[in-house]
Amino acid sequence: MTTTIHPSAIVHEGAVLGTDCKIGPFCIVGPNVVLGDRVELVSNVVIEGKTSIGDDSIIYPFAVLGVMSQDLKWQDESAMTGLRIGKRCRIREYVTIHSGTPASDGTVVGDDCQIMVNAHIGHDCKIGNSVVMSNLVQVAGHVEVEDFVILSGDVMVLQFSHIGRNAFVAGMSGVANDILPYAIYEGPRAKYRTINRVGLMRHGFTNEDMHAIHKVYSAVFNETGDTVTERLARVRKEVKNNKYAMDAIDFIENRAKRGIGTSENAE
Fold first, then answer.
1. CA 17 to CA 48: how far, in whole Å?
2. What is the pLDDT of residues 61-88, one digit of tens each?
3. Which of 9, 139, 145, 213 is the most exposed place for a label (fewest CB within 10 A)?
């Protein structure tokens, strides 16, 4: 096979296209765009700015990728730091993903992500590998989403939030704080409910792993009588040989910047 470009598509001089790409009807590919091998733009796709898309990704109609961000502090298009999308991603209809600003080295989406209809990823976000964003998910600027996260339909994420790996956020939740790894959050203002047992089982976590993670979160949300720092110090001794439980503690102590919210059982 060879790269095919529909006669109605506009591919600007300077764009770099890999082998066996398919550029469908009415697509626009800007002069600084780099497409990997076997990338397909189905139709009516707009890709601008310093955007690169990894091998075997497919972009569906009316997606708009790499355009200047909506951050009003940075309105010089030449200063935008670009967008990098990994391999084997599926970007569905009407998705918008904006370029990074000089506040970062660019907006990044990892490998094997599925971004569904009408989702938005704002400027300077860092999205990990194998992330699923369902229809109408809205992610503001500077958000970090770690690997294997699922954001259900209509989830709204406040800027600078950090969502830990293997987390699940239920539909129509508003995320205004950080989301613990390996956990389920839900509610109009997302609250911790329990560990993401089904998701963890699908990714090969053992019962021992899940018990250790649950022990950490029970110490944080369910125990009383001393500080969270003191509870974590105590539970650390019990789970120190489990890497996932220790990662959960590290997230609380070092990676969370907006707080981890409350438990739905706390009220």
1. 14
2. 999 999 999 999 998 989 999 999 999 9
3. 9
**Helix or strand run (H / E) with residue 192:** strand 191-195
3 state DSSP class of 154: coil
Distance from first CA to last CA of the chain, Å, rounded? 61
What's the rounded Cα separation, in Å, for the pair 165 and 199? 11
Q: What is the DSSP letter of 126?
A: E
Q: Which of 167, 168, 133, 139 is nearest to 153 (CA)?
A: 133
pLDDT at 266 over 90: no
Q: What is the pLDDT of residues 173-208, one digit of tens each?
A: 999 999 999 999 999 999 999 999 999 999 999 999
pTM of the predicted model as reported, rounded to 2 decimal places: 0.96
Q: Is there a contact between 61 and 43 (Cβ–Cβ < 8 Å)?
A: yes
228-239 vs 243-250: helix axis angle to the nearest 10?
160
Catalytic positions, written as ranges: 123-124, 141
CATH class of 201-266: mainly alpha
Name the CATH code of domain 4-142 (choices 3.40.50.970, 2.160.10.10, 3.20.20.70, 3.40.50.12370): 2.160.10.10
The encoded tokens of residue 136 equal 């109408």
